[in-house]
């Protein structure tokens, strides 16, 4: 296997940066201990702290069956630390800036270290509580849209339920999935569409916890369809996942289209990851939709919200995406907003309606700050029957 030097350098750089950030956080904690008069052994602090810091990485290392639960625990704890690290970094930087002004004003820096540490730790606890509530309490967002195309059957109103980025795994499990089943089925939708990242990398917890049994309870009058996201590729179990979905009656579209009783089309693209991870690559939107009768409505799913203009030109009437999580926790949304033409919500691109969901589940910790776990309900109104 040929090793890419650029990849190795990139990994080393990010590991070094990650380590420096966490040393900064750890150093602040030791300063706070000293200001609070807490006596501790350096080894007794830094060794557990290092395990916490690298827990998510260590938890992904293949382990013997007997100790696999330990790896899963490390991965879950380590995922929550990712949020604590980001929040801690921002809060400690802010605290240091304020501390600089305190020092310049000849204030008592020892007292400042003690009380600022208490404030920062309390703020992280509050953020964890609020973020957990945002992640585990899904809301339904509704979009009412019109497509200026006639229907062949007389059904001019369609209800489409959408949930992207469920990320079923060791953190998001059966309980949260149950909330999805209950709320989606209550809509009595014509279609249920799942635009990618249904599982979170590994398929193992999806199988172990028999989540397909629950997912198979989704009911829609005209069918349930899904596409692949980047995480189905990352886990390396895409084919097995597609097989499991097929068993429960959910068709995973990979550069495929479905004619819904001659009334409208549902199209699903492979994820952008397929451009490098799939030997057959992926079709462009124009290649995928070329053979369709574009006098009929076309709903296109593409996991990552890119190339809106191309999809509109190809004839899609509705484009559904996810992937961004709207940054999942602020201020990450400032970056996703710059990266994507639309990182969350609704926009009109020419005649095409674009809807990007912040997702139903979470990557890493079940924490959302500045975003909510959501299900999308789309009411589509078509023109009168021909």
Automatic annotation (TrEMBL):
GO molecular-function term, one example from the UniProt record: hydrolase activity
Stretches that traverse the bilayer: 7-27, 39-59, 80-100, 112-131
Calcineurin-like phosphoesterase domain boundaries: 159-326
Entries under Pfam families matching the protein: Metallophos
InterPro entries per the UniProt record, alphabetical: Calcineurin-like_PHP, Metallo-depent_PP-like, Metallophosphoesterase_sf
Keyword tags: Membrane, Transmembrane, Transmembrane helix
Stated name of the protein: Calcineurin-like phosphoesterase domain-containing protein
Organism: Cohnella lupini
């Amino acid at each position: 296997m040929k090793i890419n030097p650029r990849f190795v350098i990139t990994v080393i750089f990010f590991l070094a940066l990650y380590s420096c950030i966490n040393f900064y956080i750890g150093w602040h904690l030791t300063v706070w201990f000293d200001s609070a008069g807490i006596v501790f052994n350096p080894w007794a602090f830094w060794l557990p702290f290092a395990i916490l810091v690298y827990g998510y990485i260590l938890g992904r290392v293949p382990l013997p069956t007997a100790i696999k639960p330990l790896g899963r625990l490390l991965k879950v704890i380590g995922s929550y630390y990712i949020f604590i690290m980001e929040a801690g970094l921002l809060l400690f930087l802010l605290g240091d800036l304020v501390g600089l002004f305190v020092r310049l004003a000849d204030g008592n820096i020892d007292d400042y270290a003690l009380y600022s540490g208490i404030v920062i730790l309390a703020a992280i606890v509050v953020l964890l509580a609020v973020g957990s509530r945002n992640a585990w309490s899904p809301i339904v967002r509704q979009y009412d849209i019109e497509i200026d195309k006639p229907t062949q059957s007389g059904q001019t109103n369609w209800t489409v339920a959408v949930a992207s980025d469920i990320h079923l795994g060791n953190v998001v499990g059966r309980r949260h999935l149950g909330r999805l089943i209950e709320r989606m089925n209550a809509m009595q939708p014509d279609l249920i569409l799942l635009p990618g990242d249904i599982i979170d990398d590994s398929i193992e917890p999806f199988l172990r916890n028999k989540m397909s049994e629950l997912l198979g309870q989704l009911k829609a009058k005209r069918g349930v369809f899904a596409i692949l996201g980047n995480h189905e590729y990352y886990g390396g179990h895409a084919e097995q996942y597609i097989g499991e979905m097929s068993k429960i009656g959910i068709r995973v579209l990979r550069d495929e289209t479905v004619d819904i009783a001659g009334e409208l089309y549902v199209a699903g693209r492979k994820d952008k990851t397929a451009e490098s991870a799939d030997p057959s690559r992926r079709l462009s939107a124009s290649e995928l939709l070329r053979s369709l009768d574009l006098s009929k409505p076309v709903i296109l799913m593409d996991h990552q919200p890119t190339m809106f203009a191309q999809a509109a030109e190809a004839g899609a009437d509705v484009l559904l995406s996810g992937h961004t999580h709207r940054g999942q926790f602020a201020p990450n949304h400032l970056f996703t907003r710059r990266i994507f033409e639309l990182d969350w919500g609704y926009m009109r691109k020419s005649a095409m309606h674009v809807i990007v969901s912040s997702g139903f589940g979470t990557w890493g910790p079940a924490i959302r700050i500045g975003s909510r776990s959501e299900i999308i309900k789309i009411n589509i109104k078509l023109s009168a029957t021909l």
